[in-house]
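Much of our argument rests on the idea that a fold can be written as discrete symbols. In the encoding step, the backbone of a single protein was reduced to a row of integers, each denoting a local shape. This step matters because it turns folding into a mapping between discrete strings. For completeness, the protein is quoted in full, as a sequence line and a line of structure tokens:
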Amino acid sequence: MKTICFYFQVHQPYRLRRYRFFDIGKNHNYFDDFANRSIMRKVAEKCYLPTNKLMLDLINEYGYRFKISYSISGTALDQFEQYAPDVLDSFRKLAETGCVEFLAETHSHSLSALKNKDEFYRQIESQTKRLEELVGYKPKTFRNTELIYSDEIGAMVADLGYKAMLTEGAKHILGWKSSNFLYANAINPKLKLLLKNFRLSDDIAFRFSNRDWSEWPLTTEKFVHWLNNIDPKEEIVNLFMDYETFGEHQWAETGIFDFMRALPGRVFSSSNFEFLTPSEAADKHQPIALLHVPYPISWADEERDLTAWLGNELQDEAFNHLYSLSDKIDKLNDADLKRDWLYLQTSDHFYYMCTKWFSDGDVHKYFNPYDSPYEAFINFMNVLSDFTIRLKSKILELNYFANTKVDMEEIDILIQLYKQKMLELVKIKGGEIINGNGNGFAKNAEEVSEVKKTKPKTGTKTKQSKKLTSEKPKVVSKEKTTSVKVSASKVKSIKAKSGTETTKPKAPKTVKKTSTSKVESKSKATKGVVKKSASKTKKAK
């Protein structure tokens, strides 16, 4: 039997609020919470909830005969959790049926695969973890943002262990070949490729309600007839589209829900097709050839290239400026900055800057909240300017504290030296110097007092004693104690001048009330410790 593979993209960006030039450096709230909440609830009511119910009803009706797949971006998962937990519950119910496959992709629906391999890998890991956490499903197949693919991107995905990947069946890549086969990556053939049948997919996604279309109205009979007219040798038809096709892009009034509800029954009764998930289709069919894609392709617009997001000066400037910050982001572990960095990478921001006004202009206008691409560019760059300031300030802050840590180690050495000098001054001058805890060196003062009592009352020595007791002790200058940065050479010179080590010197033995000769010898020993005091005494004499 031939295979139909239904895949739906589920994505919602975090839209930016109107961010003025005067907000730069003052307001770090970039995202329009009201718009994001209201749009999510609107799309949930019009699309996600009724379509999920429809798919669940079809699975309950046909069992394992009907199968579908979803790729839900990390930003959509985050918004489901914030604004639409009922949608999350409905996806969990679909996952529990065993008839639904959920695919891996980048967390922020970003273009990181084109610029930064490490960031690309981080986002895939983040999205898959989030999917397991919220939906309870571990992905086995990969789908990149907007089906963007090249040989190198496919090789990166294969290195992560994925066996299959989805992309566009672009005409300029396929040439005479058909998208209705399985292909393999040109660098790593272990990676199988499922290619979108863009004609049949777009018949549903874009042309379904177009009354100017020659095939309008589209019925299940007509669609299955087209399926049956496919070459008998061709094996698989991949129908890839936005999930918002149902109820949002194609309103319920167009009959899109009725079409989808009747399609599986018509396929089973009037064709030789079965429904499979992407991983099942990759296991069933074998690649017929390598697919060479030297330059990236996508499923967007007539060209099927990257011009919807990159190519004009506005897009390239914003894109390059954003990813020039990658190295700085890697140095930080700031949750707020990393979250903003993640959401700013969403491809939608660059999509809004597209200046294509011809065949695809209406499509771009439909999804664009701005009046012009220039307005989108200015708004994004204002936000990016503020983000850059925050980022650089954070790095400077971290560098400051890192340097201060080293300086403080030097200061600790100086503090120990200053404490020793203060102890010596207390012993010589007999003053009561206050330490850091607010307590005086009482013991030392008592010792000096004891010495004073036992000294002979000769004229010269009495004058010297009075001079010593009356003088206030010299405290180390404020300039030295408050120094923030001290070199190692200065520390050595201080040690040399003090003649002491960093260890605390032994306290002198307590003087007892014995003979006068012992007291005098003790006094002489005390005088020999600090020469400055002796010199001052002579001067006073």
Notes: The mean pLDDT is 83. The longest strand covers residues 2-10. The first helix runs from residue 33 to 62. The chain has two domains: 2-14+36-302, 405-540.
